[in-house]
Design a protein that fits this description.
Number of strands: 6
Strand content: 25-35%
Order of helices and strands: EEEHEHHEE
Number of helices: 3
CATH class: Alpha Beta
Distance between the termini: 15 Å
Shape: globular
CATH topology: Endonuclease, Chain A
Strand order of the largest sheet: 1-2-3-4
Radius of gyration: 14 Å
CATH architecture: 3-Layer(aba) Sandwich
Length: 105
């Protein structure tokens, strides 16, 4: 079962992820266009997002992105995307350490 809106420490930075399957080291990130639309600093936002994703991947996590349109209008396709990612990421003996509200789990 995924946990949502949890923090992961990548050894220098902490990031909140939308959904995490800790035993599979798998992150699902919902992308919305609001953080890009009509912003003068959209380039900086995109660069920070790329750096964040790189750090998560360097920590051993797989990151799967999905957009609002897919989540709202094509749930079967989204479910298939999630299922394929889950199939690629076998259960590991050690779960990803994550926190919620400052508590280590």
């Amino acid at each position: 079962m995924p946990v949502s809106n949890v923090w992961i420490d990548t050894g220098g930075s902490r990031y909140r992820v939308d959904h995490l399957l800790p035993d599979r080291w798998l992150v699902f990130e919902g992308d919305g266009s609001l953080k890009y639309d009509d912003r003068l600093d959209a380039g900086r936002v995109v660069a920070e997002q790329r750096e964040r994703e790189w750090r998560l991947r360097e920590s051993g996590l797989e990151v799967v992105r999905y957009g609002w349109d897919l989540a709202r209008h094509d749930r079967r396709r989204l479910a298939a995307r999630f299922a394929a990612a889950i199939a690629r990421c076998p259960v590991r003996t050690e779960s990803v350490p994550w926190t919620r509200a400052g508590l280590l789990v």
